[in-house]
Amino acid sequence: MWVERYHTNFRVASADKLNFGMDHLGRLERLRVDISDKHLDALVVTHLPNVRYLCGFTGSTGVLVVTPKKSAFITDGRYAEQASEEVKDAKVVIDRRPALVATAEWLAKEKRKSRSRDVQILGIEESLTVGARKKFADALPGGFRMRIAPSMVENLRTIKDSDEVRLIRAAVDLGCRLFKTARQTIRAGVTETEVAAEMEYEARKRGASAMSFDTIIAAGERSALPHGRASGARIPASGFVVCDFGVILAGYCSDMTRTVHVGPVSEEEARFYGAVLEAQLAAVSVVRPGATAGEVDQAARKVLQKAGLGRYFTHSTGHGVGIEIHEAPKVAADQEVELEPGMVITVEPGAYVPGAWGVRIEDMVLVTESGCEVLTNTSKELITV
What we know:
Elements: E1 2-4, H1 15-18, H2 24-37, E2 42-45, H3 48-55, E3 63-66, E4 71-75, H4 80-86, E5 91-94, H5 99-114, E6 120-124, H6 130-139, E7 144-148, H7 152-157, H8 162-185, H9 192-205, E8 210-211, E9 216-219, E10 239-245, E11 247-249, E12 252-253, E13 256-262, H10 267-286, H11 293-306, E14 318-320, E15 327-331, E16 344-347, E17 350-353, E18 357-360, E19 363-367, E20 372-374, E21 383-384
Parallel strand pairs: 1-20, 2-6, 4-5, 6-7, 13-21
Antiparallel strand pairs: 2-3, 3-4, 8-11, 9-10, 10-13, 11-12, 14-15, 16-19, 17-18, 19-20
Helix pairs in contact: 5-6, 8-9, 10-11
């Protein structure tokens, strides 16, 4: 089963009250199982969203090393106070040298303590640049070998725990509040950037640290641009306006799209919008444990193809959302990953006719034990302004 819930009288709690009680130790223990399964002696975590997920650090410089028995977070003196306050379930190491160089020294000391003569296998993340890999390799003494360990933490992050779902709900609710601001601001003659600015100001007032991505406000013929970032173009007297936006609240992202219409709606426009809405609802109805991401995508495409609009659907149907705006799983054609309870994905089919108009409708959807729940609490009926 799937459930949609709509309500408009909600209040967003402060980010400080939302951000507590994360199960960092549980995440580290699950990662350690994977480390052992992959026959690694340690995983060197450098992708900052992964660092945050595992130990809570929100700064811009640091490396987390996870071994089967220990965790150490290594950073420099600029972050000493922040690390002592934020880092959970890992020893904080402050070093003046670059973090990767200091990490190599920490690993060497640990190896000496263990008196092991075996070569230790270090997993490193794919996101680590070639230059950074070389710097790390040069700093390591003999007795270590690096191995790319792709997506180990990212795979853990696909399943959100209850604390993460709570934070995502709050971010989604704030996003819904911003859509009200958009509806109040959109009118003929106003620039797209003015609408985006009002939304982003409201987001900041209500506790968002940033927008999840550059706000998309695309009006008239520009609505046919799937990623038409807000520009200085003025909203025309008649036509669709695609509003795609999200916030970062207490470290977690939201993402939603609604398409409104300025002025009277023609029969052709109403049919076009109705086809996209039918495709979106069809895709949501497929979301459940055991369904594949490809099946969700296909459900949307089938409706648009039947309506003669298949060639105008030019992107994938969705993606995972969490600490980052784009996470696994990818919801696209032929994606065989099976959905599991705790995954949070977007469902966002659209159709775009160059030089004419475009429509996209997007919700964030939580996979539950028995089906799914639509988290985006805003009606999808066509709104005229």
